[in-house]
Protein 1
Amino acid sequence: MDQPAHPDHACGHDRAGLVARAERLCRERGLLFTPLRQRTLEVIAGETRPLGAYDIAERLSLPGRRVAAVSVYRALDFLTENGLVHRLASRNAFVPCDHSHSGGESAVFLICRACGAVDETTSAEIERGLNRTLARAGFRPASRIVEIEGECGACQEREGAEG
Amino acid sequence: MDQPAHPDHACGHDRAGLVARAERLCRERGLLFTPLRQRTLEVIAGETRPLGAYDIAERLSLPGRRVAAVSVYRALDFLTENGLVHRLASRNAFVPCDHSHSGGESAVFLICRACGAVDETTSAEIERGLNRTLARAGFRPASRIVEIEGECGACQEREGAEG
DNA sequence: TACCGTCCCGTTACACTGTAACAGGCGGGG
DNA sequence: CCCCGCCTGTTACAGTGTAACGGGACGGTA
């Protein structure tokens, strides 16, 4: 769990920690943490706001070396399948997985319309409610999407000060 | 106008009731329930499974008279803004609003991967959990998305019977 | 009547999202 | 060595969504 002295420069996420977790996870599961996958993960972790696949492709491309979106999609499939990034269905965009939900609880995303920041949290009560609702309906869940769009606290204050 | 005694033939939703609700709502709010909007709503209500905008456009088109997707999008914007249809973020598709959540509770969608059916329900417990989570984070919500993908009860039974 | 603004809708064009299919490279195992 | 599986690059294409412009219908106003 060694964190670097300076967690990240202007980045919203713990890039080094996420890469370290990915390397460990791939070693354990016998998967390949290829350069493309690593760079894709780094690009996502190096951004405060969710990125679209084409944004990622652009950031991965160099003057002579263009990365096609389809390659990014494959890397993203790998990263999401292994719990390293999340896909926001309401935005068609990707964010790193905070891993604050280690207990198998599904994630709740708070997406700010003003600044674009995404907060990933969990709630035992929401989880309980979902499980009861699913049981009542006899529905076997495969994936759960809980995304709230609105305004984060910081942007509410900023707006109040300005307006 | 006159609907047959049997509510709907092979349709999954109460088409006539939804149209009646739309007419009443538009009268109350001084909005126009134009033919395009009505036909769009009817197409959505006449289908068991969620439809994409281009599917709707295709169903609305006649041999000589083609409806462009952009027109459908505008009708869909109107219908969603007025609570007559819902958009499924995980599918980029639209379903009629059951209006079972009259109490202002946000909807929970159970989407079956096997048969494509969508069940719209609500849960006071989920609502409470969401509200607490939002309050704790100081987040002001504008829209809430709760979509569970999985297998509905009927398809589980069918699968078990087949093998 | 003419004029004006608004709303709705048709049209074109375009950008973004996502997948299918095929080919080449690379490494491991027979 | 060949075979096989995995990853990546490439092309092509289908689906999703919006911006911009123009015209028609309709109501209000002079």
Protein 2
Amino acid sequence: MSAVPIDSVLPELARLLGDAGRAVLVAQPGAGKTTRVPLALLDSPWLDGKKIVMLEPRRLAARSAARYMAAGLGEEVGRTVGYRMKQDTRVGPATRIEVITEGVLTRMLQSDPALEQVGLIIFDEFHERSLHADLGLALCLQACELFRDDLRLLVMSATLDAAAVADILGGAPVVESPGRVYPVETHYLPRKPEGRMEDMAARAVLRALAEQAGDVLVFLPGMKEIRRVASLLAGQATVPDVQVLQLHGSMPQDAQDRAIQASVPGTRKVVLATSIAETSLTIEGTKVVIDSGWMRVPRFSPQTGMSRLDTVRVSAASADQRRGRAGRLGPGVCYRLWTQQEQAYLEPHGTPEIEEADLAPLALELAVWGTADPSELRWLDEPPAGAYRQARELLELFGALDGQGAITPHGARMAEIGLHPRLAQMSLRSVPLGLAATACDLAALLNERDLFRQSFTGSSAADLRLRLEALGRADAGAHSVDAAALKRVRLEAENGRRALGATGKRTDSEACGLLLALAFPDRIAQGRGDGRFLLSNGRGAVFSESQTLSGAAYLVAAELDDAGTDSRIMLAAPVDAAQLEAALPGLIEEEALVEWDSTAQTVRARHRRRLGAIVLSDKPQQRPDPDRLAAALLGAVESEGTGMLPWTNTARKLQQRVVFMHRFDSGWPDWSDEALVATLDEWLKPHLYGMRSRNDVQKLNVASVLEAALSWERRRRLDDQAPTHIVVPSGTRVPVDYADPAAPALAVRLQELFGMTETPKIAGGRVPITMHLLSPAQRPVQVTRDLSSFWKDAYFEVKKDLKGRYPKHYWPDDPLTAAPTHRAKPRV
DNA sequence: CTCTCCCT
């Protein structure tokens, strides 16, 4: 092996790891760290003959690193150097370096938390900050603390914020290595970019082809943009011998391979790629990179339990990584479709996956680890609380966690299966239904890349049953199926069947919907009849392209893009409601609802069967509970207020008199409107039995209902202390007005009061009545609470005035002895 | 008017 830049720092790295037990190695791509570091550390005395485990974020990278190192030792993979990943492991008894994919570490730790055979764990490409790497590091740090203070950790990264990692490693030393990348000349757009990204990209391609030699790699956010740029370029008379190729993850393997291969000598290629070409795939011969500056990222929403794709600006780190793809073979050129000013505002790093991902897998692993609260572990970024809570709720719904949040035996089995908890749930629960074989097929289908090529469109493109059927067909390699994907799905399905003891069983594609309901109980959808659906999680959903399934009464959506009001359904299968109920009775909630229907202004008693937000059936109850009917009607009065009752004058007056009494004696009940609403249960409820509607309530006699709430003794005292009328000297029974409970009033013509020396008092003599003295024509003349001083003073002023206006009336000089009258003059 | 990438 020829010398690489990393070699200069290896002795120091070995020494630091020996002393401190932890280290961070920052090295640019091309420094050779992945293949050089494990071999160089293998004979370190502190390793004590134990193994080195190195994590790679991708299977391809893990295999090729192992192969490269084995070749350097002149050995086969599986001797000193091996690799380990799901469905593919090459490790022998002599293996001392195991290159593993990130998820494997979690499984290793869960089965042997002390990792007895391992002396050093290396996290490669840690700057990618995958969920698995973050989790793996957190678990390792605790394993070190609890069981293995001699387990050494090395974190390797290209563009990392080394200080933060060094910090959670407990102040680990940082070693930096020079890189070996060729210079890449960077061109920014001169001013504020105008027009569509696709137009700019196409123009940049033409410019690059004219100005530069070699192949061109263009980074675009997604398939849509790639196709648009491709068609723009196709419309141009491009330079001869230039081939335009597309590259994204959902393309079949053979098409991806064609894009990656070096161009035929004498020709040039332009590869239009997603971020797949940033780290995962290397395109041979790239001399020029054109970067749109945008990427698509998934964002999980804990509110809906679904993900959405967002188009966002790349981080400065990503942009540098993309640019570096032009400098692998020699000096290169990079065109950035943004300005130098905008460059200053790019985020330094992308968002770590843990911040925006579905945390159900992580929550399950932590529960198996025995950790309920993630803050018990050390994280670079702690799992967000909302997503973590949603994840735990899902696991509890599945029976993976018990009431205390601890892992159940079922949850432990789910984790062992090594699938997303939803798919693990489907696999395990399918066994008693006799559907394990189909469940394994389905889990494999959903876990792997889509079996069907992108070109497979039409009215059944979103139907999962077709994929299940294709999986079982001998000649499935036909037109629309991606052969490489089919092979992987079949392998995974077969392994699943073996694990569940369902080998050789037939696939039942009609059970598809039912099985999906096990995994996605929150995504069962009820057709609304117009092609739109209501999901059991309460959201709307629709197929982006009209499908045969658009008319289904019920279906289960396995894949959705959570966009706006109606999520887009990508993959689904129909389900029969009766079958669903029979097989999964636990999903259905039965409700006896007694509710006020404010439109019809009546209480409705219904028997409803619900599946989340979906109403399966809704019928009137045969014999509703009278107590609940009365309570519901009472609730309506409570929310609408006492104004809903048919108040009469008599009732209001009775209310006012009691309010007046309560003011002076708190032993009396409070009958203010608010207090009446608050105590409806006591005084109104007994009268509501047998009633259901507003109309029924209108038949109530509020006065007698209120009166019934008073004891006989209180009624007697009310008449005595808050009389309805007072008889004045003229003999007229004048009603007392209690509208103002602080000042009950009597409005009466002055002449009827001749001879009344004192203001009448009520409430057992405590409250003088406010006298509204009126003219013969019932006009207000004077208000007083002290009649005797009125007669002495003010009367004489008033009399003069009244005499002028009502000369025919009787205005005596001595009102205290004069005869009262309700006519002009007293009868003689 | 259509979905980024990866893994147990």
